[in-house]
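Because discrete structure vocabularies remain unfamiliar, we turn briefly to a single example record, giving the amino acid sequence and backbone structure tokens:
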Amino acid sequence: MLVCSKSRTSGSLKICSKSIIFEPDDAVKPILKILLKDCKGIGAVEERGHNPFTEASCLDKLGDQTAMVAAILQSRLARTCFDKNSFQHVTENPHMECVAEMVSPLVTNAGHVCITDCNLYFQPMNSYPMHSYVNLCVFTVCVKGLEVFCTENDLCSDIYLKFYSTKERDELYYYIATFLENHIAECTAESYMLQWQRGHISNYQYLLHLNNLADRSVNDLSQYPVFPWVISDYSSTQLDLLNPASFRDLSKPIGALNTERLERLLERYRDMPEPHFMYGSHYSSPGYVLFYLVRVAPEHMLCLQNGRFDQADRMFNSVGETWKNCLEGGTDFKELIPEFYGSDSSFLKNLLGLNLGRRQGGGRVENVELPPWASDPDDFLEKMRLALECQYVSEHLHEWIDLIFGYKQRGSEAVAAHNVFHPFTYEGGVDCDSIEDPDQKIAMLTQILEFGQTPRQLFVTPHPQRITPRFHNLSATPSLSSMSPSMESFEDLTEESKKMAWSNMNKLALQSCHKIHKDISKNVLYRHVDSTLKMFSKENGLQRSVSFSNMALSSCLMLPDDKIVVCSSWDNNVYFYSIAYGRRQDTLMGHDDAVSHICWRDDKLYTASWDSTVKIWKCVADDISSNKRTQFDLLAEFEHEAGVNTLDLSPAGTLLATGTKEGTLTLWDIASPLPLNQLTCHSGKIHQVAFSPDSRHILSVGEDSCLVVTDVQTGMLIATVHAEQEQRCFCWDGNTVLSGGMSGDLSVWDLLSSKVIHKIPAHSGAVTCMWMNEQCSTIITGGVDKQIILWKPEY
């Protein structure tokens, strides 16, 4: 309320950085603006028994505008509370209230946040007691903020809340997750990465998710979502998306694309005193964002430019000219914004009829000039979207992610990639809370906001490449057309049958159940803790029962010709049993401790042992199934720091994955004794590891009840799923997992959502082993209940 000598006027008082603005409720009355530099002090008016401006005496002592604004604002926040009369329902029960700021482009609005068992409210200090509320939201947790994305049914727009402490932010988020039933938690970067790699989300969607996770928001121009330039051809009449020359090198930042300019920048960088930085401007800043959006958000540009538009020749006049300046300009290194790959082309057109000035040639600044290959703005955006999703970009987008969100963002990798910006642009580059002088603090924050900010780092290891379909040019090999179509049709049919089987994995039907051991079954080929191997025919029942030693068997397999069974034992040996001759044919004594797992591929035997080694053996005999002793030569030995409990070969047989008793997963090239990648991904013993059918990922399960997906190319842990109970064994197709747990149930997992989509009662005790045929049409499980169960998916 404004009190004069003869009258009173109600309205809103707004405290700005350089002035105080009073806006009367009566629209007929004028708005009053008082410059802070003209204020000698603010008098306190006591009314109805309380003093609303008790800080007035302190303001005279502060003597600077910043302190004055802060004191008035904090006083107003302290003396008010959320007006509960604004609740949508009288039955709502408030659970928490705190002070926060709602962030919008170039403006932060202080107010009160309140959460009830139904809604989340924000009540701003200005225009009090007006309010907004949200009841169906997705929430993203930022450094000291919370971004609220409203559903289509909500009347309010998305809001970005900034808190004064992470404690209050975390407490509010707790209540959101507790009381709002429709709250949808944000996925992790690793989860989105897996979805993107598998083609379940587009390049555009993935980049939006990464920007969101890195605290980039359209409500904050200083941290606006950043997208890459992907096209480099803006002069041709036709855009060729099959020609690599049409695209920008995504492995380099904008500043490193021009070799001559880069040399000049590096020379300056070497001669520069601390702190070193290569680029004097950033790739994303409020000025750059509004450079692109001036035609649809002129008010923001006027606010940023003190009421004026930029000079006409420096406006966003042409896509081609802008790209050329980004390549050649000494201080222009900007990337793009999401709008270039969206569907709304209004930012390219002067639909508001703005007077944006005249260029030196005399022409008025109107619509943005488009490349010759675009017929109109909508066609331009459509081709930009096609370019972003095309094969070339999909194969190289991970390189740009490494620069902006990943391991090349900071440190020595950033220096090597010529990707070093001013220290102030990085998260944690300056501790503003330690600056006590308010003027210096405001100046520092202003510099950071205006210069631009680097996104929060999401990845610290190389980002894996996207899995892209392989295109075959059949016309280039006419001989293929003369081939019999039966083989090609058979392969297509097999793949389709596999997909159908996995899509129906939640409809497993029990075919038969057999109890063929007197004690615990350990493997679907029916190895036994009393060292007995039992061979069973589904049609004819038990066929053979063979005992090899006085210690239990650990693993067994049948060779491709179905004539030899190979078993490993805890007595350190590997046994070969001839089905044709009905006897033990040979014994391989190759380890100093228990042999835990074996694998056979291309006449080679792979053995894993608790003596911390994996060995590869080559069969010397021409026919291993002959009634003769067989010699095995040791081809390679892979040493580990702990006992090896499991192993798996990639489908091509070139890579080896091993899991140890201490939870370490190691990836090997079988041609080299040195590991390609190694990481501790479990806190206990790894029970099983397996490559995906395309060899891009490795899934492992362990004693810690976790399912972990690791990228083969980079060694990056890209997904960790916490199960309710320990999972002992599994089969998977790269997206869906069928696992057996300690309770005896089979679980069908969707790795993309990290959820169990179906549970199937199976054994009365832990499921200890699982086998699936190549067509994925038959599954066999074994458990501690001594049962062998055969399953088939129902179609």
Notes: The chain is about 20% helix and 30% strand. The radius of gyration is 34 Å. Residues 158 and 321 are 34 Å apart (CA to CA).
